[in-house]
Amino acid sequence: MLPAGNTAQFYVEDLLGTSRVVTTNTGAVCYDADFYPYGGERTVTNTCTQNAYKFEGKERDTETGNDDFGARNYSNRFGRWLSADWSAVPVPVPYANLSNPQTLNLYAMVADDPESFADLDGHCGPQEAKKDCSNVKVEARIEQKPTTVQNQKVPGTDEKATGVVGTIEFTVKVDGKPTPNVNITEKNETSQTRNGQSVDAQKREGTQVTNANGEIGDRVGMLQTTNGTKEKNNEIKTDFNDQGGQTGR
Fold first, then answer.
1. What number of CA atoms fall less than 13 Å from residue 77's CA on the CB side?
2. Do the domain assignments include residue 217?
3. What are the average pLDDT values for consecutive 10-residue runs of the chain, which has 249 residues?
4. Euclidean distance between CA atoms 202 and 246, whole angstroms
5. Total domains in the fold of the chain
6. Domain end marker among 38, 57, 76
């Protein structure tokens, strides 16, 4: 991971993906911790500049202590999900295996066996459920190749931006069929250097729902804010050619 304005940090995970040790780019240990089965943290060393990825490698909110698994948030204090499990195709009990009663609990963490299994996305956890997750596929294709844009309005602000933007279209399929009304949460990681030094890179995230064809579109680009003048736009283009811009959605 590359924290904004800092040097790289390296994560060492256990078999479930939990971050147990973090080192600096020189190999010095800046984080060392043990974890209880349901995600509680027992810190030995914590001097890292930034460390938000903990239980099963998921981002932990500093205010609530909850972990973001994508589809749902998880509380290690309760050892339970904060919302019931759901699936793209409505079924009475999503991802259930009737031979294992623990999978009938829509709030249980990996069928109440967190020492043996990891949950990758907030849906599928224990081995018994993997056959259901294997039916979910996401296809991506380039809808629009990277194109130079000028004075483009930044959504949700009064700002304009100039840079390069492309569009990717994703299709979510279950059992080979495009699936509508799937809630998609976007999480981005960005890194940028200028003259060998890390600089802040603005990122834009959001949520979308797949359309009737199971599709969503996502714009990916490198942009800088502009006052709209020709001089400023030319300056931005030169900056991109020489050193790079800001990555955003």
1. 6
2. yes
3. 68 92 91 94 89 92 94 95 85 80 89 88 64 75 88 80 88 87 76 66 76 89 84 81 49
4. 6
5. 2
6. 57
